[in-house]
Amino acid sequence: MPRYKLTLEYDGSAFVGWQRQTNGLSVQQAIEEAAQRYCGTLPVAHAAGRTDSGVHALGQVAHIDLERGDPAEKVRDAINAHLRPLPVAVRQAERVDDDFHARFSALERSYVYRILCRRAHPVLEHGKVWWVARPLNAEAMHEAGQILVGNHDFTSFRATECQSRSPVKTLDLLTVTHTPVPEGSLIEIFVRARSFLHHQVRNMVGTLSLVGTGKWTGRDVRKALLARSRSSAGPTAPACGLYFLEVRYPTVEAPSSCIQA
């Protein structure tokens, strides 16, 4: 059956997460059922990463095998037609070789975490940012964040229910930027790695927020990292500020057409 790579955008607040669950609608279920209405059979959608409930995506990647080999642009448009009015869309569809796997072929994954710092609560971006009613020192957060870059045992930053075999991961990039907005500022934390532990990004952000408020210093972050204990690090940042940004794969020639919305 032809295999298609789908680049997805979605509002995670409407779903129980990526993976199919019994307690509500997941992104995976929405994609699979839309594809079923299009081609008549229920495919299995495999994602580059499983996002939690409330986590958004700008460039999540999944692949599905369909029984009909339509052009990529038709697949994209047909699935999108059956997804409406759910807040998820196929931004791009590509026909790929059978050995492509959205998860196992990935070389690196990127996320961005957004924090809105201002006294007034967000209205238009409600559920899209972590609202912090006081200023945060983005420069101090960036400096402390460099302690986490590299190959480390991230036990202090993994969820207790994390199923990864090893807590050792290599964080390739962590940058913290600061953008002035009316009556406040928008802080964005960009991270990149081949893979992440469950809640690793949100736990790192929660820890760095303590640095932003002045409660912690870089020394405290290093101490938490070396402790290899979840209780030694900071809180878990809310899901609403996290976005699956993009996935990088080996460069290969696509076997057929590709079109982007």
Instruction: Please give the radius of gyration in angstroms.
Output: 19 Å
The gross shape turns out to be globular
- Strand fraction equals 25-35%
Sketch the topology as an H/E string, one letter per element: EHEEHEEEHEEEHHEE
Largest sheet properties: 11 strands, mixed
Gap between N and C termini: 24 Å
- Residues in helix, %: 10-25%
User: How would you state the average pLDDT, rounded?
Assistant: 95
Number of helical segments?
5
Number of strands: 11
Low-confidence stretches: 253-261
Structural class comes to alpha+beta
Description:
The structure is a single chain. The chain starts with a strand and ends with a strand. The model is unreliable at 253-261 (pLDDT under 50). It has 5 helices and 11 strands; from the N terminus they run βαββαβββαβββααββ. Helices cover 22% and strands 31% of the residues. β2 (46-47) and β3 (56-65) form a beta hairpin. α1 (27-39) crosses α2, α3 packs across α4 and α3 runs parallel beside α5 (218-227). Strands 1, 2, 3, 4, 5, 6, 7, 8, 9, 10 and 11 form an 11-stranded mixed β-sheet that branches. The longest helix has 14 residues, at 200-213. By secondary structure, it is α+β, with helices and mostly antiparallel strands.
List the helices and strands and how they pair.
Blueprint: E1 3-10, H1 27-39, E2 46-47, E3 56-65, H2 72-83, E4 88-96, E5 108-118, E6 130-132, H3 138-145, E7 150-153, E8 168-181, E9 184-193, H4 200-213, H5 218-227, E10 242-248, E11 258-260
Parallel strand pairs: 3-10, 5-6
Antiparallel strand pairs: 1-3, 1-4, 2-3, 4-11, 5-9, 5-10, 7-8, 8-9
